[in-house]
Each structure stands twice: as structure tokens, then as C-alpha cells.
Design a protein that fits this description.
By secondary structure, this protein is an all-alpha fold. 54% of the residues lie in helices and 0% in strands. The chain is built from 2 helices and no strands. Helix 1 packs antiparallel against helix 2. It is elongated, with a radius of gyration of 21 Å.
């Protein structure tokens, strides 16, 4: 027989979910910035694939997004009584 321990609580607080959604948004923007630069002709190599946006900015945004996600999971809100 299970004991009723009271109302069910969420695993995270509202603040944690906000940071998690922010992380998902930043990661999505990073992947969107990484797209494109291909060529429709397989015999032609497009140098556009190696531009600064795809090589530096997009992976940096993705790593920042993963960092925000880790922060949102590992932090707890301090409640003042």
C-alpha cells in the first residue's frame, strides 16, 4: 500500500525551465546558422561551406546552448523562508 505524501511537485522550478527553453532556442539557432553552403552540382566545390559563420559562430552558439542546458539542470532555486 502506498502512502499519500501530498501534492506532486515538478522536478525543476520555473526558473530552470526558462533556462532550458533558452538553451533549446540557442542550440536551434546554432544549427540553423550551420546550414547551407552546399552545391547542387557534385563536380563543383563551393568554398562558401568554410565561411566564418559556419566554422566559428554556429558551433560556439551550440556549445553555449549546451552550457546553458547544463546550468539549468544543475542549479536549484534557493527559497527564502
Amino acid at each position: 500500500m502506498k502512502k499519500n505524501t501530498g501534492p506532486k511537485k515538478f522536478l525543476f522550478e520555473k526558473r530552470n525551465y526558462r533556462f532550458l527553453f533558452l538553451a533549446i532556442f540557442v542550440i536551434s539557432v546554432g544549427f540553423i546558422l550551420m546550414t547551407g553552403g552546399g552545391s547542387k552540382d557534385p563536380n563543383y566545390f563551393n568554398e562558401e561551406i568554410f565561411n566564418f559563420r559556419r566554422i566559428r559562430i554556429a558551433p560556439t552558439l551550440i556549445l553555449i546552448g549546451f552550457g546553458i542546458a547544463m546550468y539549468s539542470i544543475l542549479t536549484r532555486e534557493i527559497r527564502k523562508k
